[in-house]
């Protein structure tokens, strides 16, 4: 096998970025954590090819890229089923595979989930910013241009990994049609009326088309919510659920700002952020409050 594999993007796809575990320690300066939205799937893709779990991956959203390879390498796909094919032959999730000169990997229609992760064995030769290779996809995109794929982009990965390759891994279904997302009370939970809290937990929500890696806007509103005073901007983290003054819930994700002034009714638990990552606009979800027993189990 050659010492490297290069990825040439003949098509970039809808939104394809390089992500790793994230960028931590800079939130006090307004820098979002970023990183893979589905950390479990990203870790699986790396584990299959023998990389360390903090290695970068490609995060591929809904409509994937078309990639031609130079050299030889080992790859694996985890997360969403986006109908991947290698030289026209179906390429299953959760399985390591080899590529050679001029092979072409491309993605078709989304079958299940929203985001797929492509792990590539070896050391990715792309620049880091603040100790991470993760793209910042919104206002700070100019800081990480090499991590946002465009048509014609080239990425080189040197095959320096010493770990063994895991050929296959059992792939479980990503989610049901309307998952129940578990949450803990947010800092302003006690400032919502019992009626509004009942409304929040009592209905289903659809993810708005106006959603991205910064956050999911939900189409349904809390009709009983009427804020009685403005809040001083306070810290927020991925999973924070804000309620706008119009009663619209917004679930903040990895590329969100680090402070906000809306009421924070709840926060999604870490284990369910991966579930959220695989939901797309139009999908439905509900919220459930973590019970005392569940808190003990999660501790």
What does this structure look like?
By secondary structure, this protein is mostly beta strands. It has 2 domains: 4-158, no CATH class; 180-298, Beta Barrel (Cyclophilin). The protein has helices at 39-49, 194-202, 270-277, 292-298; strands spanning 4-11, 15-19, 57-61, 66-71, 73-81, 85-86, 89-90, 97-99, 104-106, 112-120, 123-124, 154-158, 180-185, 205-206, 215-217, 234-235, 240-243, 249-252, 259-260, 263-268, 284-289. It has a 7-stranded antiparallel beta sheet, with no helix packed on it. It has a 7-stranded mixed beta sheet with strand order 14-21-13-20-17-18-15. Strand 17 (240-243) and strand 18 (249-252) form a beta hairpin. The longest helix is centred in the first third of the chain and has 11 residues, at 39-49. It is elongated and about 65 Å long. The mean pLDDT is 92.
